[in-house]
Design a protein that fits this description.
This protein is an alpha/beta fold and about 675 residues long. It is built from 24 helices and 22 strands. It folds into 4 domains: about 160 residues, no CATH class; about 80 residues, OB fold (Dihydrolipoamide Acetyltransferase, E2P); about 190 residues, 3-Layer(aba) Sandwich (Rossmann fold), CATH 3.40.50.300; about 160 residues, 3-Layer(aba) Sandwich (Rossmann fold), CATH 3.40.50.300. The protein binds adenosine-5'-diphosphate and magnesium ion. Magnesium ion binds next to α10.
Length: about 675
């Protein structure tokens, strides 16, 4: 960097903060937007919101006092008028704007109402009588900046970098010929030149939407780099050996006969995809997607059985204590009759219980271990771990996925890995974010599920809702009343739920009402859930404890308090607890006014659809992929030019190119990753 004129140590450090360390980085630090200083716009054809250069003669300049002191300068050019408005000005400045003066200005045009158009604090320059202002030859780039680096500095530096580019010394064309075609035919160097210094007639609107061929060219290359890095990682992992699980299917058949239901076709299909993977001698890396209630757990158990029967240990990891607990209970129900020993590991476990659990894991006595992140801990030593199942992947990042795999490594063998998520991810997005994984989709719900009618009601109508609950109970329905997280603290959450419980007990004295929250002992929670299931409780007041895994078919009404505070996927998860029998179910989303725009939109989406894929799609639109997939922190999807949502339709072509690069052009891999991913090389090493 310091090779460039005007870059001392100080500037170099500030550039570094922007992620710019090389001339190449500088060239890929693209403008956020552009200003058109190439031409003068006649005052008669201004439009609100335009950022333009204008020229005119001062008609009058006066200082007035509205709420604040301000200077107004009226300008005309024969085609129209505009007012320049200044809140800060010196006497000197005022003198300089005496009537008759010719001005050249640049700024944003605003519609000032009856006073006509105005510009607030425009940049301006006085012109001599016959002076013609110097106009720019290209659109002016405005860069994402950092404190202490002026736009002018960035412009001067990119000027130099572009000049070097002209000599074709700094930038290499990395996409092999034929892998990316567009009609515009820009080379990489030309595309960069264009984006840094667009010609005056450049289609600004197109560029604003990042749809210009030059932008698409770069986005393609960036997505390609990401895809290559993920595939490379996958390839490296799959070069390792993994246990071959050629078990008989005795345990599977036994389990099936005691399930009490038939597997859906979708479940059967996914189960056989997994079984196939487990018989291979390299690690499975499979993402199983399935909407809430699609029956992922039983699919996981059946995979586990194949591993156990082949003599391997299985670990099942969930992101929260509650979810892990529920899995543990489910697994225990299913596996105890098959004489399979389980262990439970959580961060909260202390003393003897913990020692015992650790011992059971290490000795191999436990065949299936269920737990939270605690499975990562150093004291945990697996014994012949063959399969690792992670539930609710979207809360784990790629790094954690890798660490887990390393953790399970034994004699240079890697365990198979299966990841389950209830956030259905559009296919093209999955191709980007999970290019290292194969995907299976359980795209069918078990039979007999009823669509849930959803209504949105303000809190003021609480008494109506209470009546509705009373009515439902008389009809023999059971009811959930959910009091979601209001404070981050479990204590306060439990407190809020307790208050609601006592209020409801007063209003609905005929009903058997019980409270359940995260601070109760596991045994206690278990007991309560069981008696709700047995029908001994009419109304269950719950915190989001019931978000996951709880299954009570007779419950067909759900009230959710403070629904405006919950995210789409959380609401969808909660609502997934009802509509599990042939009864008609309904869900009441109660909210506190006033509703913000996003909250209003979320609630309306919930009212209109129960399709998990549709909800996930809208969730992605509202929150963005980083948030939804939980990949923001990991930096994996830290894209500079491309946008996962916007550029989705490119993915099939990207994937094709990526395969070609890996197969036929290994020499471009390293420079490609180096150009686009700070993480890339690190990944490549795994
Ligand atoms: P999720 O995919 O949300 O994790 P679960 O695995 O918790 O769903 O399954 C939801 C409920 O559906 C559980 O009670 C489970 O036993 C039941 N279930 C799973 N598969 C079937 C099936 N094929 N037919 C009927 N019920 C099923
Ligand atoms: Mg589940």
């Amino acid at each position: 960097m310091t090779a460039l004129r005007g870059v001392g140590r100080q500037i170099a450090e500030k550039l570094q903060a922007l992620g710019i360390e090389t001339i190449q980085d500088l060239l890929f630090h693209l403008p956020l937007r552009y200003e058109d200083r190439t031409r003068i716009v006649p005052l008669g054809s201004l439009r609100h919101g335009d950022r333009v250069a204008i020229e005119g003669q001062v008609e009058s300049t006066q200082v007035i006092h509205r709420r604040r002191r301000m200077m107004l300068c009226r300008l005309s050019d024969g085609t129209g008028f505009i007012t320049l408005r200044f809140f800060h000005f010196s006497q000197q400045q005022k003198k300089g704007l005496s009537s008759g003066t010719r001005l050249h200005c640049y700024g944003e045009v605003r519609d000032g109402g009856f006073a006509g158009f105005e510009m607030i604090h425009p940049e301006y320059q006085r012109l001599a009588d016959d002076e013609i202002p110097q106009m720019e030859e290209s659109l002016t780039a405005i860069y994402p900046a950092t404190e202490g680096i002026h736009q002018l500095t960035l412009r001067r530096l990119t000027d130099q970098a572009l000049a070097l580019l002209d000599k074709n010394t700094t930038i290499e064309e990395l996409i092999p010929a034929g892998l990316y075609e567009d009609d515009s035919g820009f080379t990489l160097a030309e595309a960069l030149q264009y984006l840094h210094r667009p010609p005056p007639d450049a289609p600004l609107k197109l560029m604003k939407n990042r749809q210009h061929p030059c932008q698409r060219r770069l986005a393609f290359e960036e997505l390609l780099a990401h895809n290559v890095s993920l595939r490379l990682m996958r390839k490296r992992i799959q070069r390792h050996a993994a246990p071959v699980m050629n078990s008989s299917t005795n345990l599977y058949e036994k389990l099936r006969s005691q399930l009490g239901f038939d597997l859906t076709d979708a479940q059967t299909r996914v189960i056989s995809e997994i079984a196939e993977d487990l018989r291979r001698n390299y690690p499975m890396m499979r993402l199983v997607q399935g909407d809430v209630g699609s029956g992922k757990t039983v699919v996981a158990v059946i995979a586990a059985l194949q591993a156990v029967e082949s003599g391997y240990q299985v670990a099942l990891m969930a992101p929260t204590e509650i979810l892990a607990e529920q899995h543990f209970r489910n697994m225990d129900n299913w596996l105890a009759p098959l004489d399979i020993e389980l262990a439970w590991l959580s961060g909260r476990q202390k003393g003897k219980a913990r020692q015992q659990a650790l011992y059971k894991v290490e000795s191999g006595e436990a065949r299936l271990i269920v737990g939270t992140h605690a499975l990562f801990q150093e004291e945990v030593v697996f014994s012949n771990l063959g399969l690792m199942i992670v539930d609710e992947q979207h809360r784990f990042g790629v790094h954690q996925r890798l660490r887990l795999m390393e953790k399970g490594m034994q004699d240079n063998m890697r365990p198979h890995q299966m990841i389950m998520t209830a956030t259905p991810i559009p296919r093209t997005l999955a191709m980007t974010a999970y290019a290292d994984l194969d995907t299976s989709i359980i795209d069918e719900l078990p039979p007999g599920r009823q669509p849930v009618t959803t209504v949105v009601i303000p809190e003021e109508r609480r008494s109506e809702i209470v009546e509705r609950v009373r009515h439902a109970s008389v009809q023999g329905c059971q009811i959930y009343w959910v009091c979601p997280l209001i404070e981050e603290s479990e204590v306060l959450q439990a407190q809020a739920a307790t208050e609601i419980e006592s209020a409801l007990k007063e209003q609905l004295s005929d009903l058997k009402i019980q409270l359940i929250h995260g601070r109760l002992k596991p045994m206690e929670k278990e007991r309560i859930m069981q008696s709700f299931k047995d029908g001994d409780i009419d109304l269950l007041v719950a915190t989001t404890v019931i978000e996951v895994g709880v299954d009570v078919p007779n419950a067909s009404l759900m009230i959710i308090e403070n629904a405006e505070r919950l995210g789409l996927s959380q609401l969808h998860q909660l609502r997934g607890r009802i509509g599990r029998s042939s009864k008609k179910s309904s869900c009441v989303l109660m909210y506190k006014s006033p509703l913000g725009n996003t909250a209003r939109e979320r609630l309306s989406i919930m009212r209109k659809t129960s399709d998990g894929f549709e909800i996930a799609r809208r969730d992605l639109e509202i929150r963005g992929p980083g948030e939804v997939l939980g990949t923001r922190q990991t930096g994996v999807l830290d894209l500079r030019v491309a946008d996962l949502m916007r550029d989705q339709q490119m993915m099939p072509e990207v994937v094709k190119a990526s395969k070609a690069v890996l197969n036929d052009y290994p020499e471009v891999i390293k420079p490609l990753l180096h150009r686009w991913l700070k993480w890339g090389l690190q990944f490549a090493r795994v």
